[in-house]
Specification:
Elements: H1 5-16, H2 20-28, E1 35-40, H3 47-60, E2 65-71, H4 84-87, E3 97-103, H5 115-124, E4 129-133, E5 150-155, H6 162-166, E6 176-179, H7 187-197, E7 203-205, H8 214-223, E8 243-250, H9 254-264, E9 270-274, E10 279-284, E11 290-296, H10 302-310, E12 313-321, H11 324-333, E13 343-344, E14 350-354, H12 356-359, E15 364-368
Length: 372
């Protein structure tokens, strides 16, 4: 389905304002074929210039493009502070490029609450590509990974220790890294640091102001053709086959935490040290799903880093599935990000962790049902 630009703009405004009729109309539209690309990274990385350069290359290839540029919210108007005419002047008169500045309206995570619906609208409007540029707030900008088919993380030389500071956030969601402004000193060092953190992820060097490397970036994006929302829906399991196994809670001290639950009348049924995860655990049966308390074994434990970053609290939710291998196959086919291959955990059960970017924000553990 195609829309003229004025109709598309009016419908986008209504959707962003959460108009019930517009949302109902959107739900009734058939899906399109758009490739959704998220462009994220810290402020000053040149994301807007890179998006404009990507749009130019796509238009050169006769592809239609929608750009959703997520901006901070004006306190006066409630709209985006930066306007599309300012950002993308060279594309404004091109009917094959639709540009929309989207206000965050207080939402965290680098995108607005309406961004997902606007992406769907651009897809339904027949665009070949939807480019979503996040607001540029730093390491918490991970929401984009849950709505983009390909997430591009843009960094620049001279960041110093910033790669270390943000590696627990946007560094984890990259499908492609871009070193923009790569003609500046420090590009080689930055590439080494990125490769040390995420050796499996391709790195592309660009100078967006001169369109250098943009064609190579587009080729990397094109190699990731499988789109999660275009994959066939998984065959559902019968509802009774799924159940919550346990809730994982990160604590600084197992002894202190268990003493609290014992006051409630709960008692530890099992303690264990999982050497490869570098955690001590204590299991407390709670009538159905269990409580799993997790304490780091030392400062090199990833759980210790979690506690330093977020403090004690909910760490993960564990779900028992009837066929872990089949579940993993479905998730891989749908483009979900898995943190490990199936392996043995506490009590010898097989498990897989799924990244929060794929689950809606919570670290999810899948456990083989009959291995409890």
């Amino acid at each position: 389905m195609t829309f003229d630009e004025r109709t598309l703009a009016r419908m986008a405004t209504a959707i962003e304002n959460r108009d019930p009729q517009a949302l109902a109309d959107l739900a009734a539209l058939p899906p399109g074929h758009a490739r959704v690309v998220g462009i994220t990274g810290p402020p000053g990385a040149g994301k807007s210039t890179l998006v404009a350069a990507l749009a130019t290359e796509l238009r050169r290839q006769q592809r239609t493009v929608a750009i959703l540029a997520v901006d901070p919210t004006s306190r006066l108007s409630g709209g985006a502070i930066l306007g599309d005419r300012i950002r993308m002047q060279q594309h404004y008169a091109d009917s094959g490029t639709f540009i929309r500045s989207v206000a965050t309206r207080g939402a965290s995570g680098g995108v607005s609450l309406a961004t997902r619906d606007l992406v769907r609208l651009m897809d339904c409007s027949g665009r070949d590509y939807v480019l979503v540029e996040t607001v540029g707030v730093g390491q918490d900008e991970i929401e984009i990974a849950s709505l983009a088919h390909t997430t591009v993380v843009v960094l620049v030389p001279g960041m110093g220790d910033d790669v270390q500071a943000i590696k627990a956030g946007i560094m984890e969601i990259a499908d492609v890294f871009v070193i923009n402004k790569s003609d500046m000193p420090g590009a080689d060092r930055l590439e080494r640091e990125i490769h040390a953190e995420r050796p499996e992820v391709p790195i592309v060097r660009t100078v967006a102001t001169d369109a250098k490397g943009v064609d190579e970036l587009l080729r990397e994006i094109e190699t990731r053709r499988e789109a999660p929302h275009q994959s066939p829906p998984p065959t559902p399991y019968p509802p009774p086959s799924f159940s919550i196994d346990h809730i994982g809670i990160a604590v600084n001290s197992l002894d202190q935490a268990t003493s609290f639950y014992e006051i409630l009348g709960l008692h530890v049924s099992h303690r264990e040290t999982i050497a490869h995860e570098k955690v001590h655990i204590a299991i407390l049966p709670a009538g159905g799903p269990r409580i799993e308390l997790l304490e780091p074994t030392g400062p090199d434990s990833s759980l210790e880093k979690f506690l330093a970053r977020r403090g004690p609290g909910l760490h993960h939710l564990a779900l028992r599935v009837p066929d872990l291998e089949a579940s993993v196959g479905r998730l891989k086919a749908a483009g979900a990000r898995l943190l490990n291959e199936p392996r043995a955990g506490a009590g010898g059960h097989l498990y897989v962790f799924v990244h929060p970017a794929s689950t809606g924000g919570v670290l999810l553990e899948l456990i083989q049902e009959n291995s409890r």
